[in-house]
Amino acid sequence: MGIALAPDLALAAAAAAAGGVGYGIAATHLTPLVVNASPSSHLSRTTATMTLVQNLSVITTFVGSGGLAEAAGPAAIALVDGLLLTAIGFAALGSRPFRRA
Asked: What is the distance of C-alpha 3 from the center of its chain?
């Protein structure tokens, strides 16, 4: 959302950097939670499923985001993406295992 709402390039770059740091922290902390929560007999299935879901979501959102950016402009889709990510973050806070980790 910060990228979409930034009034100048410097603030947009700072928002992008903050988003990158947040993504890195989430990826390095949430992936081990999922792996540790899965039974050892299903570890390879869990890892394969996580990889499939991540790759499919990237492919589909790139296509969807590109189409929406073409129609509504890049700032609008950046704002929508930011709002969706914020909603997902708040939904994750509702997960007891994530809150206790």
From this structure: 15
Q: Exposure string (b/e) for 57-89, b if CB count within 10 Å is 16 or more?
A: eeeeeeeeeeeebeeeeeeebbbbbbeeeeeee
Residue 3's CB: how many other CB atoms inside 10 A?
Answer: 19
pTM value? Answer: 0.61
In a 3-state reduction of DSSP, which class is residue 11?
helix
Alpha-carbon distance of 42 to 100, in angstroms, equals 23
Taking only the tens place, the pLDDT of each residue in 12-45 is 899 889 988 888 887 788 888 888 888 889 989 9
